[in-house]
């Protein structure tokens, strides 16, 4: 059974789309489609139902997916084991990150890491904090950089560099000239939030409770799965939002959005480098952890 075709199949199942799977794999959509077709042909089973724009696994596909994930995980573990025979070059490093550190911190860290450990294959998964921590706990990742803590068991947390959350409004909004905004008045405006479990949302909800504002009373217009969607919604006048200052620096600089601070101390949060408790890291992961923690000093 061809590993590459299994990888194509799993990516399609996880993204529910041939197009998104191809983007994640940095391949063309016809290449991914053909790989899945050949896999179906070799097994003599239809594995995916093509339902318009959505793709879902058939019963046979659901069975294969469970085994395929285990097979691919064993492949990755084998690559790490072989790579670990060489302490200074090569090897494999599986990283995860929530959206903000994944977009604004990890690229530079990975570049520095590869300068010191040339030839290492780095696999990076970027998603919401909850999904990344679940993948880490399930040993699909070796290290993760996220924007909030959680109650997922069996993880070890290392605080590192931080971030500040700011309230964003469109130019011309009635709050645009304020220096600071009282958290209680957030209840008066429709608000756009990230999905439940994201580090940004968790930090905001904790801040509101500390200021005697119940998050359940917010006028939530929409929950969005990306910071880009949130920013576009605010620019379009749909509502306000609280986001990472890193993620809106360009828009604020151009005057497309106005960033405001909330009352009280700056709404800051640390990022955390997370690993599984009690598990030995590969040499590549140990070096990457050292670089991340050193950069926070």
What can you see in these coordinates?
The structure is a single chain. By secondary structure, the chain is of the alpha/beta class. Among the domains are: 1-83, Winged helix-like DNA-binding domain superfamily/Winged helix DNA-binding domain (Arc Repressor Mutant, subunit A, Orthogonal Bundle), CATH 1.10.10; 162-269, D-Maltodextrin-Binding Protein, domain 2 (3-Layer(aba) Sandwich), CATH 3.40.190. It is 43% helix and 24% strand. The chain has eleven helices and twelve strands. It has helices at residues 3-15, 18-25, 29-43, 59-83, 99-104, 106-116, 129-137, 199-210, 227-235, 249-254, 283-295, and strands spanning 48-51, 54-57, 92-97, 121-126, 143-146, 155-169, 180-181, 190-194, 219-224, 240-244, 258-262, 268-276. The strands form two sheets. Strands 3, 4, 5, 6, 7, 8, 9, 10, 11 and 12 form a ten-stranded mixed beta sheet that branches. Helix 8 links the parallel strand 8 and strand 9. It is globular. It starts with a helix and ends with a helix. The relative contact order is 0.14. The mean pLDDT is 90.
């Amino acid at each position: 059974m061809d590993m590459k075709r299994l990888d194509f199949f799993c990516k399609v199942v996880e993204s529910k789309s041939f197009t998104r799977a191809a983007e994640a794999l940095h391949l063309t959509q016809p290449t991914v489609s053909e790989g899945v077709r050949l896999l179906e042909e070799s097994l003599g089973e239809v594995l995916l139902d093509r339902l318009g724009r959505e793709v879902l696994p058939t019963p046979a596909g659901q069975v294969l997916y469970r085994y395929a994930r285990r097979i691919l995980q064993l492949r990755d573990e084998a690559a790490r084991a072989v790579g670990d025979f060489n302490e200074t070059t090569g090897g494999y490093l599986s990283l995860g990150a929530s959206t903000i550190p994944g977009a604004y911190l990890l690229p530079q860290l990975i570049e520095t890491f590869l300068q010191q450990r040339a030839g290492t294959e780095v696999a990076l998964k970027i998603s919401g904090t909850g999904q990344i921590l679940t993948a880490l706990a399930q040993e699909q990742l070796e290290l993760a950089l996220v924007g909030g803590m959680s109650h997922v068991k069996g993880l070890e947390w290392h605080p590192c560099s931080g971030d500040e959350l700011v309230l964003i409004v469109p130019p011309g909004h009635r709050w645009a000239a304020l220096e600071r905004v009282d958290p209680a008045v957030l209840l008066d405006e429709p608000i756009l939030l990230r999905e439940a479990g994201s580090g940004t949302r968790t930090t905001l909800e904790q801040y509101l409770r500390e200021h005697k504002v119940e998050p359940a009373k917010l006028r939530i217009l929409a929950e969005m799965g990306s910071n880009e969607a949130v920013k576009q919604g605010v620019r379009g006048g749909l509502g306000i939002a609280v986001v990472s200052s890193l993620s809106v620096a360009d828009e604020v600089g151009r005057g497309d959005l106005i960033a405001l601070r909330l009352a009280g101390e700056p709404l800051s949060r640390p990022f955390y480098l997370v690993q599984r408790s009690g598990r030995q890291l590969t040499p590549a992961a140990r070096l990457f952890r050292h670089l991340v923690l050193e950069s926070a000093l």
